[in-house]
Amino acid sequence: MTREELPNLAESKLTALVVDDNFVNQSIHQKLLARLGIQNDVVCNGKEAVDAHCSGRNYDLILMDMDMPIMNGIQATKRLREMGIESKIAGVTTRANEGEKKEFMEAGLNDFQEKPLTISKLLSILHKLDFYVQT
Hints:
Keywords: Phosphoprotein
Distance between the termini: 10 Å
Protein name: Two-component response regulator ARR22-like
Domain Response regulatory: 15-130
Pfam families: Response_reg (PF00072)
InterPro entries: CheY-like_superfamily, Sig_transdc_resp-reg_receiver, ST_Response_Regulator
Strand order of the largest sheet: 2-1-3-4-5
């Protein structure tokens, strides 16, 4: 997909939160979102994601890593759902057996993708979660 073919969602004013403890993954996810015109913030663990929402921040999409210190993705997703957060949450992880994937989905995910996240996988998430991306 060439740069000209990528949709620009800046006009839609979509916002995203990247929740990942790995700097490289944070950077990749931020850049992919930015390439689509999606404003985004980054936090390093599940507790920071919960705290961000407690302080009044709200996001359309949350890209949630599964394996993190200080509240993993499963715990953070459950907590956010308990708080009534209705953001679309996509789980992203490098490793997950079927049991872990099932537990992560049951925590309240809307979608699940394996890392590394690519522009194609991100577009797939946006399509699946009804963000009406025009390509």
